Amino acid sequence: MYQRLATSGQYVTVWRIIYNDYFMQNLSITDQHAVATHEFGHVLGLGHFDDPYQIMRPDPTTNWIKTPSYDELNAVDWINSQ
Ligand SMILES: [Zn+2]
């Protein structure tokens, strides 16, 4: 879970990621990395995409996608250019 703790204008300046230990301990290390990548996507400003080929799908452990897609990286670039 990602939490915004402080913002400055449109920017999130303080944030934290909280992992559910019970949930995470039952995942493979590859799926744990997928969850961490997904949560960092939120930190960078991405929301959920209901697309099985995106790490930002609501549950990143239910498919074989474990890294951000080209479209997701472009979305982060776009967010940071605003
Ligand atoms: Zn999410």
TrEMBL record:
One of its GO terms (biological process) is proteolysis. InterPro entries: MetalloPept_cat_dom_sf, Pept_M10_metallopeptidase. One of its GO terms (cellular component) is extracellular matrix. Pfam families: Peptidase_M10 (PF00413). Residues 28-59 form the Peptidase M10 metallopeptidase domain. Its EC number is 3.4.24.-. GO terms for molecular function: metalloendopeptidase activity; zinc ion binding. Keywords: Hydrolase, Metal-binding, Metalloprotease, Protease, Zinc. Signal peptide: none annotated. It comes from the Bacteria. It is an enzyme of class 3 (hydrolase). This is Matrixin family metalloprotease. It comes from Natronobacillus azotifigens.
